[in-house]
What we know:
alpha/beta; 746 residues; 7-stranded mixed β-sheet; 6-stranded mixed β-sheet
Amino acid sequence: MLKLKNVSKFYYNKGVIASGFTKVSAQFDTSEFVVITGESGSGKSTLLNVISGLDSYEEGEMYINGEETSHYGESDFEEYRKKYVSNIFQNFNLVNSYTVYQNVELVLLMNGYKKKDIKNKILNLIDKVGLINYKNTKVSKLSGGQKQRVAIARALAKETPIIVCDEPTANLDSKSSREIIKILKEISKDKLLIMVTHDYPSVENVATRVIKMHDGKIVSDKKNNDVDTDRRVEIVDNSNKEIGLFNMIRLGVRNTFNIASKFILLFIVFLFITASLLTEYGALRKSEYESSKLGYNWYFNDTTDTRIVIKKNDGSSISREDFNNINKVSNIERIVEHDILLDEYVWFETDYEKVSEGIFINGLIRDISTFSGKLDYGRMPEADDEVIILVNTYEYYFTERLEDAIKYTYYLNGDKGSIAIKIVGVKYIEEELFFGNDNVIYGDNSLLDKYMTIINKQNSTVKININGNNYDSYNVSGDYFNIAVSDKVSKGNAIISEDINYTCKNFNCKNQNMTINVNNINYVDSLGFKISNTYNDKNVKNLLGINKDNVNYGSIFINKEDYDNLFNKDSYQASVFATKVDFVSDLALELEELGYHTLEMRKTFSNEGMDATKLLKIVKLVVTVILIVTLFFISYFVIKLILKSRNVYFSTLRILGATASHTKRILDIELFINSSLAYITYILFVLLIKNDIINISFIKSVVEYLNIIDYLLMYVILIMMSYLISSRFSSQIFKKSAMKSYREEV
Length: 746
């Protein structure tokens, strides 16, 4: 079966050539129990390794079933070991973190057997070596004799015709040694068993042949007992059986979790890599986004990046039904129906006659329902004219003289005939809220409706037609032809100032017809009136219910309902706010499908920030590459230290019949599982932060700028890193022969 002809093995170390053995010739047959003895350094273990295919030879020829092996490379010897040889080692070479069953199963999985087909075979082998009661016991808890029995069961599982044993009883007590020798004798009846030992007396009665070596040469080779050399054994050909993907996955998963400390350390390393990649990339995306907003916008004041301005494609108003349909769209945080309020500054001022200094507050007006947080002073509004304010801490009157500031009534633009408010609550904020403006006034819907009618009028071109002549209304309180409201005026009628009687014949406009024409970007409308009377300082109180000192002469007073018909129409423009900036583009597309023209606020800035954004993209790419390379080498160094304890395991797999490439695939799967679990854990952690279950503001502030593509990209990079780490590690431990790698680690 096996023949050596003038075979020599040499070692090269730093230019020095040493001989393992020289010119060895021998022939071995089935059913032999061959014992190789000799003092230490005689070459017997080296000879055994060459016979096993664990080491190559430099001279002569080794034949297996008549086939020459001198041309074999490492892959050929892997096939040779897989098909012909099983090993039993002095140090057992078991996987201590596996059970007895799993150690025997391992060799069968490595040789391509399916898990479901081998259970009975494994149990029979374990029973054969007397360990059936220990089948689920981890090997690390067994005695030395029990471990060697597991090694024998594993060797038998391969069903190879050759079994080689290197000092299998060296670490055992005399009783265990006798039991192991007895089992080996039984095995040798139908296999070629070659055993290296120092303890010849213990095998003298069972060996069929004894070879003695000295100084790298065979000095004697004699038969010890009769052997049936004509007996032939069927060789189970495992050379074409591959381990298979499912077996590699099974072993990869098992190896991931079988040593808790190793798993935890690898998990922490990959969690660190994941957190570093996503957090740093998120910070760069945030910087890139912030730089894109370095420009300015002259038209809009509220430039919130989640805001989308909408108008109907046909130019019509947005009805209540329309708003109800918009509300059904996902990822909407809120809808501002009269979004002109978002961009219009307001100015409220006290009465100069009562407050000589004229306290004022300017800012933006908002719906009270959008206020969040707690007030620093006062209470929430209870009446229509009550408001709360969000004010910067540097506002003198609302910090140093708050008691004075809140006891007065404030009038829109200082006009006592316009909107009046009272401040009942204050919340302070230190950072700047809006460009050039730091205050927000929160009121109820009644206040907002009043203000909207004024805003609509201010944004319209208004012309008054009396007796066929047009006069411009500049919508400024105190100017001629300004439109005002009085409940004393009946619908369809108007009361005008005596000061504009000049527009009529004989300076008398009473009972004359008047038309108010309104034109703005949203609509054109007109309404006809009959001038029912004219007012002056003598009759203004009686006609309009207004004190003569508070009236702005030159104004035209109409009924509230008529005023609303002209200026308080349905919304023509609204703003929709997305729950996240990531959803803005998709939300805009959905709104366009509903028939709206959309404008994403984040796209309305000037190009001042474009150069900075381009530069930052380059920086982002460079920093990301540097980060990935740095993380790779740091993580490789750490993972290499963690996996170094596994080198014996990987070498053992190769000895048992696995190829270097298959062993690497198992490591790939193990690192893939570790990295994926770390990634999933970090993503769950991010979700907890985003949902305010865990409060880590820094991470929340950067990951919100990442989208699904970014997360997928970072995952691909992480998996590639784990693969490269596996490849680099494998190239170090698999570039040598299986035995050399094993020797260096044991």
